Amino acid sequence: MLNSDPPKHTRLRKLVAREFTTRRVEQIRSQIVAVVDELLDRMEGRDEIDLVADYAVPIPITVIAELLGIPAEDRAPFQGWATTLVGADHAPEEVEAASNAVIEYAKQLLERKRAQPQDDLLSGLVHATEDGESLSEAELVAMFFLLVVASQEASTHMIGNSILALLRNPDQLAKLTGAPELYGSAFDELMRYDSTVSIASFRFTKEPIPLSDGVTIPAEEILVLSLGSAGRDPHKFEQPEVLDVTRKHAGVLGFGHGVHYCVGAPLARVEIEIALRRLFERFPQLRLARQPQELRYRNSTLMRALTALPVATK
């Protein structure tokens, strides 16, 4: 779906969107709160925590497992594969092995969902029909893989980047904690300020594109569009280098745009809002345990992703 154009994309999108709904996401809100609170419970009494490994990574993995209907007995190996797929510093052969394991597991789980469907997203996708169309086996496996990787990568690093941005801007953190109703609207500002996804999916020009500065991009060229740069565009945002959780947005590009707007956006919003709000409620004295310049990011052109985020709880 990610690399398809209409009409193929339209068919795939319809079949997925009818199952991946805001209603379904809202149904698991209480489970997301439970996952977050359990992780926070484990942090109690510890002076220093790595909020990437101990918090940002396990939340999306656990939530997508719940949403897809992965049985409890399968979640430990599944979480291991998913962490290897999207984590840093894994050898290529480890990533390949994890990728193959996820694909093989997806095939087995799809067969189980066909025989014994339940009220979960994967069962819905297996049995989804639209105008007599349904998803093929290959499309279902690809969709499973996409949902696992995309939900994990984007949400994990959005949580980490957002926490860091707020800790480095204590006045804005104070506004949020003083008015929790701002968490929902602050999401777009945090995404704009430190975009988790650095570049959009590749585009290909079908015809020449003239730009305002007199440059023309020829036809049949590959375009790599910088989402991070777009979020700091002074023509679009006043004082773009300033984090302002009360900023009113006409829209940001972190979830894409148009027909390819991220189908998982409602899930990411709920996950990250709960993760931030519960964290700062439980640990109001949270502070960085390292200087910002000591923090390291993954060596990636696609993701702006912290490798670790050490914080002190007192």
From TrEMBL:
InterPro entries, per database record: Cyt_P450 (IPR001128), Cyt_P450_B (IPR002397), Cyt_P450_CS (IPR017972), Cyt_P450_sf (IPR036396)
Superkingdom: Bacteria
The keyword Iron belongs to this UniProt entry's keyword annotation: yes
One function term, GO molecular function aspect: monooxygenase activity
Keywords linked to the UniProt accession: Heme, Iron, Metal-binding, Monooxygenase, Oxidoreductase
Keyword Transmembrane helix attached: no
PANTHER family membership: CYTOCHROME P450 YJIB-RELATED, P450, PUTATIVE (EUROFUNG)-RELATED
Family per record: Belongs to the cytochrome P450 family.
Protein name (database record): Cytochrome P450
UniProt organism field: Kitasatospora acidiphila
